[in-house]
UniProtKB/TrEMBL annotation:
GO terms for biological process: glycolipid catabolic process; glycoside catabolic process; oligosaccharide metabolic process. Keywords: Disulfide bond, Glycoprotein, Glycosidase, Hydrolase, Lipid metabolism, Lysosome, Signal. InterPro entries: Aldolase_TIM (IPR013785), GH (IPR017853), Glyco_hydro_27 (IPR002241), Glyco_hydro_27/36_CS (IPR000111), Glyco_hydro_b (IPR013780), Melibiase_C (IPR041233). Its EC number is 3.2.1.-. One of its GO terms (cellular component) is lysosome. Transmembrane segments: none annotated. This is Alpha-galactosidase. Belongs to the glycosyl hydrolase 27 family. Residues 317-395 form the Alpha galactosidase C-terminal domain. Pfam families: Melibiase_2, Melibiase_C. GO terms for molecular function: alpha-galactosidase activity. It catalyses: Hydrolysis of terminal, non-reducing alpha-D-galactose residues in alpha-D-galactosides, including galactose oligosaccharides, galactomannans and galactolipids. Homodimer.
Length: 399
């Protein structure tokens, strides 16, 4: 009942458009611990890889040293398993003092001193997915705690909760975050737990939101997520825009499960889908090829296009898919992919077939290498070859 009372306070004040925190005007970029480091709390036997202040400090250092910060990666995001399993006597969340001996505030200061931002993780229910304290009944207190620590982003998961509480509960947390006066990017897991999410309501409370299952370090996982986005059965793609983005989950580039082509595929797809670019990898030991993909400025520019429009799949024929994303200046990002097979696929189609109908034509540039492809009228055909699991990503600039 307590929550329902808060609801009337929260959203009657600003029901028209609850979220105006100025954040995520383009998809946020950074690093997030979950996929790579999970809930490893064994700092005795695995001090370099356990969830601890040292891990996040190391990643902040690497974001700067490795050139990631220079191309836009900005958030260092703590995920599950950072606190003690019990709140203190006054109900406050406490970072595990063995693993975070300096405390979260000091970690935030460190991350800020590098010109970066610190994100943290909580849960809408009674417990986090890993069994740590959830924010149910503590939303205001937790929002204030996070703000007092200098937190810049909150991912609010949905384990151990009542799904029917989410439509009013997630906006309540947004209300309390707003009340702190500190701009805190709000990442909601709400739709991922809901069969028929009200995406309009979600976009009015959340900056980004997870729609689908957690990503795993495998091609099956990446391709499953992309299929969910391509099918767009719940009609969520058009909801994206500046300040509000669908989140297909972390980039796993630089880990173990994807081939080189599949890593290019994930980067290109996340660019076309206007997805948050949160890497979950070990920045201390990155294969050079993976690093080059993550640092590719041309692909990042597509992802960060200021219009913030999410791309859609417009053709799916066997293993071949074509996706398009409107970009500023009447340009269009076009992604051709081949998501299977054993031999190089040949694709030939007229620009009109992919919705490029401007009579004066288009100047096509391959995005990864910035290579000029040609000038095409809409009725002219484009012929390309795509290797299995690779992509051909082009920017079509209207002439
Ligand atoms: C709180 O919400 C108001 C109204 O939407 C907005 O103007 C303000 O910038 C928000 N403040 C923060 C810190 O998010
Ligand atoms: C999806 O949303 C758009 C924009 O609100 C609307 O025009 C369209 O009819 C919706 N499609 C379906 C299948 O609900
Ligand atoms: C077409 O794009 C290339 C870059 O790929 C650029 O160098 C060239 O000037 C452009 N041509 C026209 C006519 O816009
Ligand atoms: C394409 O359209 C132009 C006029 O825009 C026309 O001159 C040309 O013949 C057409 N080419 C083909 C292959 O149909």
């Amino acid at each position: 009942m307590k929550i329902i009372v808060y609801f009337t306070v929260a959203c009657s004040l600003a029901f028209v458009d609850c979220l105006e925190n100025g954040l995520a005007r383009t998809p946020p970029m950074g690093w997030l611990s979950w996929e790579r480091f999970r809930c490893n709390i064994d700092c005795v036997n695995d001090p370099d890889n356990c969830i601890s202040e040292n891990l996040y400090k190391a990643m902040a250092d690497e974001l700067v040293k490795g050139g990631y910060k220079d191309v836009g990666y900005e958030y260092v995001n703590i995920d599950d398993c950072w606190p003690l399993v019990n709140r203190d006597a006054k109900g406050f969340l406490v970072a595990d003092p063995k693993r975070f001996p300096s405390g979260i505030k000091a970690l935030a200061d460190y991350v800020h001193s590098k010109g970066l931002k610190l994100g943290i993780y909580g849960d809408f229910g009674t417990k986090t997915c890993g069994g740590y304290p959830g924010s149910k009944f503590y939303m205001e207190q937790d929002a204030n705690t996070f703000a007092s620590w200098g937190i810049d982003s909150l991912k609010l998961d949905g384990c151990y909760s009542r799904i029917e509480d989410m439509p009013f509960g997630y906006p309540i947390m947004e209300f309390y975050l707003n009340q702190t006066g500190r701009p805190i990017l709000y990442s909601c897991s709400w739709p991922a737990y809901t069969a028929t999410p009200d995406y309009k309501a979600i976009a009015n409370s959340c900056n980004i939101w997870r729609n689908y299952d957690d990503i795993q370090d495998s091609w099956d996982s990446v391709s499953g997520i992309v299929e969910f986005y391509g099918a767009n059965k719940l009609n969520f793609s058009h909801i994206a825009g500046p300040g509000r983005f669908n989140d297909p989950d972390m980039l796993i580039i630089g880990n173990f499960g994807l081939s080189h082509n599949q890593q290019r595929y994930q980067m290109a797809m996340w660019a076309i889908m206007a997805s948050p670019l949160y890497m979950s990898n070990d920045l201390r030991r990155m294969p050079e090829e993976s690093k080059a993909i993550l640092l590719n400025k041309n692909v990042i520019a597509i992802n960060q296009d200021p219009l913030g429009v999410q791309g859609n799949r417009i053709i799916k024929q066997g293993d071949i898919e074509v996706w398009t994303r409107p970009l500023q200046g009447n340009s269009v990002g076009v992604l051709f992919s081949c998501i299977g097979g054993a031999t190089t696929a040949q694709v030939k189609l007229a620009l009109t077939n992919i919705g490029l109908t401007n009579p004066s034509g288009y100047n096509l540039t391959e995005v990864f290498e910035g290579r000029f492809v040609g000038i095409f009228k809409p009725n002219e055909s484009l012929s390309i070859s795509i290797d299995p699991y690779d992509v051909f990503l082009v920017k079509a600039a209207q002439l």
